[in-house]
Amino acid sequence: MATNELVAVAILAVNIWAATSGAMAARAWWPRHSLRGAPRSTRVFYYSIIGLMIAFAANAGLRAIHICATWPPTLTIASLDDLLWRSLGSLACIGMVYAKLLALPPPERARWNILTIVWHPNPDLLVVRIRNAFTRRMRRRKEIDQ
């Protein structure tokens, strides 16, 4: 594989990761209750954060689609900037999700991790169920092995 193709694959992977992390951050910070009675500053904060993360995810997703549609892409300085700026943006999105995890009280925080906090406080979703089933299965295996 040529160097240009390796860089293009890396840029595509970073854009897919950026779209995923932006969507996760928007979902994590989606208000769980009505903001109708909240102060205006709180409403503006929530809507700004959610809008920013949705815009980031949509932009990265469309860039990934564009890369796939024009394969092999022509690499320019703007393309190479994707590696830096999208990576930094993705780290910021994951940091926002981690901040939500840290905001929980310590006893409740132990029940959640960086992937499942996105669906807090509704643990009935599919990913959480899969994780719980996996945990139960691993416990049973340990019990059988002992």
Task: Write out key terms for the chains shown.
flat, 146 residues
Please give a structural write-up:
By secondary structure, the protein is an all-alpha fold. Helix content is 73%, strand content 0%. It contains five helices and no strands. It has helices spanning 3-28, 40-69, 77-102, 106-109, 126-145. The protein is flat, with a radius of gyration of 19 Å. 18% of the residues are buried. The model has no long low-confidence stretch (mean pLDDT 81).
Explain the layout of strands and helices:
Blueprint: H1 3-28, H2 40-69, H3 77-102, H4 106-109, H5 126-145
CA radius of gyration is 19 Å
Number of helices: 5
Mean pLDDT: 81
Overall geometry: flat
Please give the oligomerization state of what you see. single chain
User: Largest sheet, described in full?
Assistant: none
Beta-strand residue fraction: under 5%
Order of SSEs = HHHHH
Helix content: over 70%
State the end-to-end CA separation: 49 Å
